[in-house]
Write a structure and sequence with these properties.
The complex is a heterodimer of chains A (about 200) and B (about 240).
Chain A lengths: L5 H11 L6 H13 L2 H17 E3 L6 E3 L6 H4 L4 E8 L2 H10 L4 E5 L17 H10 L4 E4 L5 H14 L5 E4 L15 H9 L5
Parallel strand pairs in A: 3-4, 3-5, 5-6
Antiparallel strand pairs in A: 1-2
Helix pairs in contact in A: 1-2
Chain B lengths: L1 E14 L3 E8 L3 E7 L18 E8 L4 E10 L2 H4 L2 H17 L7 H14 L5 H15 L20 E4 L4 E4 L8 E3 L1 H12 L12 H19 L8
Classes of the chains: A alpha/beta (about 200), B alpha+beta (about 240).
Chain lengths: ~200, ~240
């Protein structure tokens, strides 16, 4: 026998298609599933099928929402501050911001960052939809919460250029030294950003 | 073995949960790939030293099939480029082009110095459209394959005012040698291409090219690079 039975081989090949999973890890995952009771495997299989079937993008902000709702939980919430929109690149970052419990406004998920070299231009992102939202509703502030790296900065500069003519206040989350770290180990670029964004006590 | 060099971060690909695979144009070892473990974490020790286009000092373990980054510190961040959308876009395209054209593990100081020189001057270049054409010409010269612009690339004849361009033959072609498929271009554009190749970055603004001439120049140079370097994808600017 030079390979596993077909169903097992198929499962290994499917696992191998996942990011960062090589043949050995794929085999390990497949053997683990084989060792599990049928109901555990069934539960996993249903979760995979349902995520594709039931999760879609919110019509307003492009956050994840369940298929029976056009709008996500945040866009439907009447308690949210509808005068502020925080722009993020992916829903995962939105969730991180929600966990802070510091922000009660709305969001807009771009779906990525501008990356000219990877062929990701403004038309590949939900930028036009953001501009439509800004012109339709009474938005007073747009907060840019994008990765503090080249692609994030390029996206922030592009958005600022498009939003400024609408007369809406644009802010960016502070960049600087992570909490709980020693200043001694911060690099000069991070420190200079931290200095530029200093606050009065 | 532990090695140390300085290099430009050309590309960063997400790898595993929080790692990056970096493509670096290094001064001493040419283009290399490095694994930076934990580089995507907020508390990463590498900080901003691994941001694209940054020139950093890099210390890495060099095993047979793996180069693992140990330390990185910023030498030049090129803040003036990164805070200007058009300049940043041109710098990113240049890094991308260079990444496509340069093979790994072929140390070449000329190419490193080309990029260092360009990034050093980019913040003060006024005409970015011209600079985008000059980048392609100067990079090809650094790679040793600049198009022939002073005499006929096909028959080595002296050039007159009737000119064509042939990527396959390697540059300008005279009236006596031109063939079907060559692209006709004006003596003014041919002259300006030659000038762009020779002028330093701070003197580019002495030249003017129309929008049509710039479009044609990009097309011809892209065809030239595509033919001679088999580049799979070439951005137009």
């Amino acid at each position: 026998m030079d390979k596993y039975p077909e169903p097992l081989e198929n499962l290994i090949k499917e696992f191998q298609k996942l990011p960062s999973i090589g043949r050995k890890t794929a085999e390990r995952l497949a053997f683990y599933l084989l060792s599990q009771p049928p109901e555990a495997v069934e539960s996993l299989s249903q979760a995979i099928a349902h995520v594709k079937e039931k999760i879609r993008a919110c019509q307003e902000c492009f956050n994840f929402t369940e298929s029976e709702n056009e709008l996500c939980e945040i866009c439907r919430d009447p308690q949210r501050d509808r005068s502020v929109i925080c722009v993020v690149s992916h829903p995962q970052e939105l969730l991180k911001l929600e966990k802070t419990r510091e922000y009660r406004g709305l969001y807009h998920v771009l779906g990525g960052l501008l990356s000219p070299v990877n062929g990701i231009g403004p038309e590949q992102l939900h930028i036009e939809e953001l501009l439509v939202r800004l012109s339709k509703h009474k938005i007073q502030e747009v907060i840019l919460a994008l990765d503090p790296k080249v692609e994030g900065e390029a996206t922030a500069m592009y958005l600022a250029r498009r939003i400024k003519p609408l007369g809406i206040k644009i802010t960016q989350i502070a960049h600087g030294v992570p909490v709980g770290r020693d200043l001694e180990f911060a690099d000069e670029v991070t420190l200079s950003r931290a200095l530029a964004g200093r606050v009065q006590l | 073995m532990i090695l140390k060099t300085i290099g430009f971060i050309l590309r960063a690909i997400k790898f595993r949960e929080s790692d990056l695979i970096l493509t670096v144009l290094s001064r001493d070892y040419g283009k290399i790939s490095l694994i930076a473990k934990g580089a995507r974490r907020t508390e990463s020790k590498f900080g901003a030293a691994l941001d694209l286009l940054t020139l950093s000092e890099l210390v890495f373990y060099d095993a047979e099939n793996l180069k693992l980054l140990k330390e990185a510190s910023i030498i030049e961040d090129y803040r003036a480029i990164k805070s200007d959308y058009e300049r940043l876009t041109l710098a990113l395209h240049t890094a991308h082009l260079l990444n496509q054209l340069v093979e790994e593990h072929h140390p070449d100081r000329t190419i490193f110095e080309f990029l260092q020189g360009f990034f050093g001057e980019l913040s003060s270049v006024k005409n970015l459209e011209l600079a985008a054409v000059a980048v392609k010409l100067k990079l090809m010269r650094a790679l040793g394959i600049a198009p022939r612009l002073s005499s006929c690339a096909r028959g080595r004849h002296r050039l007159t005012d009737e000119l064509w361009f042939s990527p396959q033959s390697g540059g300008l072609v005279c009236a006596a040698c031109h063939q079907a498929g060559d692209t006709r271009l004006s003596p003014r554009l041919a002259h300006n291409l030659k000038m762009l190749l020779g002028l330093s970055w701070d003197k580019l603004d002495r030249l003017t090219l129309s929008e049509d001439e710039i479009t044609l120049a990009h097309r011809l140079l892209d065809e030239f690079m595509g033919f001679h370097l088999k580049a799979p994808h070439m951005p137009s600017k």
